């Protein structure tokens, strides 16, 4: 009796393990599940292309694809994949406003009895332009002398595409600006001076050609009341 019970327990355990194996078995085989991309000159969008093959013996249908970021979208060339058939999933990412490293993900659900397939895309967006300082201030009662900030630019890509300052935009025209190249395509001084000795504030936007980042970089300038030192 005890031997029979042991055999029954082993049999049930085997069925559970077999069922678990079926649930975890995935028939779509991707060439890569993780891809990397570094943005180049003026580039805003990245497209990751994932190639896969149905290595199983059954037809597979893609039911749903969920993305981790609203800045991304997807498309695939076929929803139903026959055994041995190949396909692709494209994920497009809008990188506007991002600098540094960013990661997006996707979960692909099929009609298989298995966990979703997961894909990752890693984007690196170098900081091609720096501005120092990011704020200039004058005080009422002082002379409204010219002040300056430094714009430093980097080479953008393997083709050695240089950046140039295309424009310096002042929103409300409270200030005069003058751009002086130190080393064309690499470093520039931008001189700023208030037009009048009045309280005011503005934002100066530095736009490059190619535009990098696409939305430009901003410097805050303002004139304020003089505060006595304690």
CATH homology superfamily name of the largest domain: Immunoglobulins
Give the biggest sheet.
Answer: 5 strands, mixed
**H-E string:** HEEEEEEEEEEEEEEEEE
Shape: elongated
CATH class of the largest domain: Mainly Beta
* Structure summary, number of beta strands: 17
How big is the Rg? 29 Å
Proportion of residues in extended strands: over 45%
Low-confidence parts lasting 5 or more residues at pLDDT below 50?
18-23
CATH architecture heading of the largest domain? Sandwich
Count of distinct structural domains = 2
**What is the helix tally?**
1
Indicate the percent of residues in helices: 10-25%
CATH topology annotation of the largest domain: Immunoglobulin-like
Instruction: Name the average pLDDT.
Output: 79
Trace the largest sheet across and list its strands: 2-9-8-4-6
Output the structural class.
mainly beta
- The first-to-last residue Cα distance is 94 Å
Topology:
Blueprint (H helix, E strand, L loop, with lengths): L1 H23 L3 E3 L3 E5 L6 E10 L5 E8 L4 E5 L3 E2 L4 E9 L5 E11 L6 E9 L3 E4 L2 E5 L7 E7 L10 E7 L4 E9 L3 E8 L5 E10 L7 E8 L6
Parallel strand pairs: 2-9, 11-17
Antiparallel strand pairs: 1-3, 3-7, 4-6, 4-8, 5-7, 8-9, 10-12, 12-15, 13-16, 14-15, 16-17
